[in-house]
Every structure is written in C-alpha cells, then in structure tokens.
Specification:
- The chain folds into two domains: 1-129, no CATH class; 132-281, no CATH class.
- The protein has a two-stranded antiparallel ribbon.
- The chain is 74% helix and 3% strand.
- The radius of gyration is 19 Å and the shape is globular.
- The protein has 281 residues and is mostly helical.
Length: 281
C-alpha cells in the first residue's frame, strides 16, 4: 500500500506544482475541477446514509466561490449566493413534493457542502493571485501540508503509541501529530530560503515560513479528522477510488482545505499587511 501511495502520489504532486506554476486560467480550471470532483464525492458519501444532496447545485456553489475569487471585479458573489439560495430552497421544495422525506436535510447538506468546498477552494485562487509572488506563497502552503501529512504518517508508524482521537481516526497518534508539527515547521521555515534563492521578494522571511508551518501542522489535521468523521458517519473507508492507494480527492485535499484557509489569511493580514496592505487587498 505504501509503495502504491508513493507511486501515485509523486506524479500527482508534480502535476499540482506544474499547474500552480502555470497559474492563470490553467490554475483556475484545475482548482474548479478538483473541488468539483470533491463535491461529487461528497454527494455520493452522504448518499450512503440515505441523504440526497443536490449535486448540480453543489457544483454551482463551488464554481461561484472559485470564479468570483479570480474575477472579483465582476461582483458576482452577492447576487450569485442570493440566486443559489433561492434555487436550493426551490429544489428542496420540489423534492419534498415528490415524496422525499429528508428534503430539508438535502437543502442543508447542499449549502454546507457547497460552501465548505467552494470557500476553501477559493482561498487557493486568492493565495495564488495575491501578489506577483503568489506562486511562492501557494507553494509554501503545499510544503507545510505535504510535509506535515507525510511526517505524521511515518512518525506515527515508528513512534505512535497514544491515540489522538481513537473513536474518529484510530491510526492517528499524539506522537505522530507532535513530531510532524516540529518537522513541518522547520521544513516550511527552510523553504523560505529556497524561494528567496529562486527570486521571491524580501517579505519571504524565515519566521513567516515557521509560523505557517506551525499553524498548518497544528490546525490543518482538523480537516483530516473532520473528513474521517464524515466517512465514519457514512460507513465508508474512503471518499472515492479515484487515486490508487489514496482513495478519492476528498481524502487528499482534506488537510489542504484547512491549510489553504490558514495560509491565505496569514499571508494577507500578517506577512503582507503588517505595514499597510497593498492596493486592492
């Protein structure tokens, strides 16, 4: 299983980095595609317990958040959310009149899934488009998430003894969690030196990398544990079977979603705005 995870994980990571470097429309399309597929996986996941989330509307919620973050000048978010709220309510009413007893649950799950995936996905657009160095800030979040995830896995297998949250994710341990936090913090801090060598600006200071690494490694696993909670409720091992050895896209981006939120707001409000925000931020 480990060999399969590595063989599928390395090309996937290379593809993600390549598209992130390209940026622009390619990156927008990739983020929309990834979070759109995750939305479909969410629909199938809740369906295992007999709940009917409205897949088409979830996709519209996701695309609205992502598209608006790339084209904020269009002002689509407010009107779009208003229309989608009405549409989601209308669809729930139609389903209820057709005899769907849990139509109200479908209404709530559609909004919750669309908002959670769409809002977190939009932060990656915001991070990549923040400044001309948005590429390096985005890569910093990748480094923090991937190093934390990998170190937690290997440290947990080697030294793990004390369950972190046994009833939700029995394989996670305090030892793996804390060792991963230390390692990811140092690795992310060191990555800032690499970005500076590649031409990043003076704002890429080691302390910013250390703090991003610490925040992501300590709080980011909430996304993983939260997804484990959803899967346990749905009585599913994985959210899908799209990626060999890893499961579905939701299984791969659960920590990234929380990490992207943390990274974006730290970069915007601390790293770039401590002496006054640049125009347009």
């Amino acid at each position: 299983m480990l060999k399969l995870r590595v063989l599928s994980g390395i090309p996937l990571a290379a593809l993600v980095i390549g598209i992130t470097i390209l940026g622009g429309g390619w990156y927008l399309a990739a983020v929309g595609c990834v979070f759109g597929i995750a939305g479909i996986e969410f629909v199938h996941l809740v369906a295992r317990r007999g709940h009917r989330a409205f897949g088409g509307l979830i996709l519209l919620w996701i695309f609205l958040f992502v598209f608006d973050r790339y084209f904020p000048q269009l002002g689509l978010l407010g009107p779009g959310m208003s229309l989608l709220l009405v549409a989601t309510l209308g669809w729930a009413l139609i389903r209820f009149r057709q005899g769907t007893a849990n139509a109200m649950t479908g209404f709530a799950l559609t909004i919750a899934g669309g908002f959670y995936l769409g809002w977190t996905g939009s932060q990656f657009i915001g991070l990549r488009e923040t400044t001309h160095d948005g590429l390096f800030w985005t890569l910093t979040v990748y480094v923090a998430v991937w190093s934390s995830d990998s170190l937690a896995y290997f440290a947990g297998k080697a030294f793990g003894r004390t369950p972190l949250i046994y009833d939700v994710s029995p394989r996670k341990t305090w030892e793996g969690y804390l060792l991963a936090a230390i390692g990811a913090t140092l690795i992310t801090g060191a990555s800032m030196l690499g970005w500076r060598a590649l031409g990043a600006g003076p704002e890429f200071e080691v302390q910013h990398g250390l703090i991003i690494g610490l925040l992501v490694s300590l709080i980011g696993p909430l996304g993983d544990v939260g997804m484990s909670m959803f899967k346990r409720y749905a009585r599913a091992k994985d959210s899908g079977q799209l990626i060999p050895g890893h499961g579905g896209l939701l299984d791969r981006i659960d920590v990234l979603m929380v990490g992207g939120l943390l990274g974006y707001y730290y970069v915007v409000f601390v790293a770039l705005c401590r002496n006054g925000c640049p125009p347009g931020m």
